[in-house]
Design brief:
The protein is mostly helical. It has 9 helices and 4 strands. It is globular.
């Protein structure tokens, strides 16, 4: 079943949805020259002396490209076998996607500093969340604060039963596993 954009949008967790929306709106405002990047950077002098309190938050959203590259990096590392195609010219597997996007930025004459920042943060997150906890003696270092868990975790549906795949390859649902 195909979902509309609105349905997909509201399936995104609320914090991610709010942050992504703010990133898109801020980046769009800069691209349309409604605001300049200099109005968005963190400047304590403007915040304290001119009461431009939005400066506390606006610079975080302006790093939207780095955030997106970080998400792409983590997704690509978690799905290493997916084949990708870039404009019908280049075939590669998912782990190379952030690097291909960075190369494309370079070809367009853009700075790759933000791309490298996103890749670096993405790699740190991926390592600390997916690699290190699975190593001998490793443990999970990144924990969601309890306040955020209480605010945003949905209660588990007691009627939910995941689809299980049997040995024959047939998908079975609502059956107990055979012991």
């Amino acid at each position: 079943m195909a979902y509309s954009f609105t349905q997909e949008y509201f399936q995104i967790p609320v914090v991610t949805r709010a942050y992504t929306t703010a990133c898109v709106l801020t980046t769009t405002a800069v691209q349309l020259e409604v605001v300049t990047p200099f109005q968005l950077y963190f400047n304590p002098d403007l915040i304290i002396r001119r009461y431009q309190l939005f400066g506390l938050f606006a610079n975080v959203f302006f790093l939207g490209q780095a955030f997106i590259i970080m998400l792409v990096y983590v997704w690509s590392r978690r799905h290493p076998l997916i084949n990708m195609n870039f404009f019908g010219l280049l075939n590669f597997q998912a782990p190379f996607l952030p690097w291909v996007l960075m190369g494309f930025s370079l070809l367009l004459g853009n700075s790759i500093v933000v791309d490298l920042l996103g890749i670096s943060v993405g790699h740190m997150y991926y390592f600390l969340e997916d690699v290190f906890p699975n190593q001998p003696g490793g443990r999970k270092l990144l924990m969601t604060p309890e306040l955020l868990r209480n605010m945003f975790d949905r209660p588990e549906d007691s009627d939910y039963r995941p689809v299980q795949q049997e040995q024959d390859g047939d998908l079975q649902q609502d059956e107990e596993p055979h012991n």
